[in-house]
Write a structure and sequence with these properties.
- The protein is α+β, with helices and mostly antiparallel strands.
- It has 2 domains: 2-109, Gcn5-related N-acetyltransferase (GNAT) (Aminopeptidase, 3-Layer(aba) Sandwich), CATH 3.40.630; 141-264, Aminopeptidase (3-Layer(aba) Sandwich), CATH 3.40.630.30.
- The protein is 26% helix and 36% strand.
- Strand 8 and strand 9 form a beta hairpin.
- The longest helix has 16 residues, at 92-107.
- It holds the Pfam family Acetyltransf_1.
- This is GNAT family N-acetyltransferase.
- Residues 1-154 form the N-acetyltransferase domain.
Length: 274
């Protein structure tokens, strides 16, 4: 077996290996190649700096890296690590990283990041053996928004590409795929809620599927959260929110209060390149 760059590997070969690797996973992934092609493009997957384990010409394991600058670091974000079932237990992830890390460092990457489901103890041990450490926890939610009254508010759509002109939302609170650097390349819309001529909250949502990538209260006052969730419900009554930093306890309590269920939790792990 040999570890090689995925730069010359067809997309269909990679995504087929992905689907086999993640069959019967902790969460169910849709069998939609176009969805993952778009998602990986949004995250700036660099296939030359993504690597696979090949048994002869068969791809049996892989690591996909999105490469982008975030907060003064050149990040290699591990979007997916997969090994097909019959090749597990052979330390393939560790072997791929032995090849990948020197290449990433040579390219100028200063920090590697990934997310892993907290119940996936086998993967966590493998990442720790490579040098990753847990830096924070994330909570994920989904469900139908439960709100009865509809308080008045003004909803303004703003161009997501201009979102950075308003630096009030700290992007470091969000995970790699939920930061503006990723979302601005995808099908997301950004909205502001204005009350009494003041912008009091913002959110970014994929209106096609109800996925909320960001939501933040900027001005806490009576009825702020009710107006925020009323606006969200009018766009999509059933929503999904991934990766709320578990230290944001007040936000988490509000998300639960409006009917969303904590479905799964993740760790963010990182490796500083020295």
């Amino acid at each position: 077996m040999q570890v090689k760059s995925l730069g010359s590997t067809p997309f269909d070969v990679i995504v087929d290996c992905f689907f086999v690797s993640f069959d019967n996973y902790f969460v169910k992934f849709p069998n939609d190649k176009a969805l993952f092609k778009n998602r990986w493009e949004m995250a700036k997957v660099n296939y030359d700096l993504s690597f696979g384990m090949f048994d002869n010409d068969t791809l049996v394991g892989f690591i996909l890296h999105g490469i982008d600058y975030r907060e003064h670091d050149l990040i290699a974000f591990n979007l997916a690590t997969g090994v097909i079932p019959q090749y597990r237990g052979k330390k393939i992830t560790q072997q791929i990283y032995e090849v990948a890390l020197p290449k990433l460092k040579q390219f100028g990457v200063t920090k590697c990041k990934l997310e892993v489901i907290q119940e996936n103890t086998f993967a966590i041990r493998a990442y720790k053996s490579i040098g990753y450490t847990v830096v924070r926890g994330f909570n994920c939610f989904s469900g139908e928004i439960n709100i009865t009254n509809e308080p008045p508010y003004e909803l303004k759509e703003v161009n997501i590409h201009d979102y950075k002109i308003n630096p009030v939302v700290n992007q470091s609170l969000y995970s790699y795929e939920n930061q503006i650097g990723t979302l601005s390349r995808g099908p997301f819309k950004c909205f502001q809620i204005v009350h009494h001529h003041q912008m009091e909250s913002v959110f970014i949502i994929n209106v096609e599927n109800g996925y909320i990538a960001q939501l933040d209260v900027l001005l806490e006052q009576q009825g702020t959260w009710e107006r925020l969730f009323s606006a969200l419900k009018n766009i999509s009554s059933t929503v999904k929110i991934n990766n709320v930093d578990d230290q944001l306890t007040a936000k988490i309590e509000k998300v639960k209060a409006f009917g969303l269920i904590n479905t799964i939790n993740q760790f963010e792990m990182e490796l500083i390149m020295i």
